[in-house]
Amino acid sequence: MTPTTALTGIGLLATQDPALGEISDAAVVIDGASIVWVGPSASVPAADERVDVGGRAVVPGFVDSHAHLVFAGDRSAEFEARMAGKPYAAGGIRTTVEATRAASDSVLRANLGRLSAELLRAGVTTFECKSGYGLDVANEERSLRLAREATAETTFLGAHVVPPDTDRCAYVDLVVGPMLTACAPHARWVDVFCERGAFDASESRAVLLAGIAAGLGARVHAGQLGVGPGVQLAVEVDAASADHCTYLSAGDVDALVHSDTVATLLPLVEFSTRSPYPDARFLLDAGVQVALATDCNPGSGFSTSMPLAIALAVREMGMTPAEAVRAATATGAKALRREDVGRIAVGLSADLVVLDAPSYVHLAYRPGVPLMYQVWQRGQRVI
Ligand SMILES: [Zn+2]
Question: pTM (2 decimals)?
Answer without folding.
Answer: 0.97
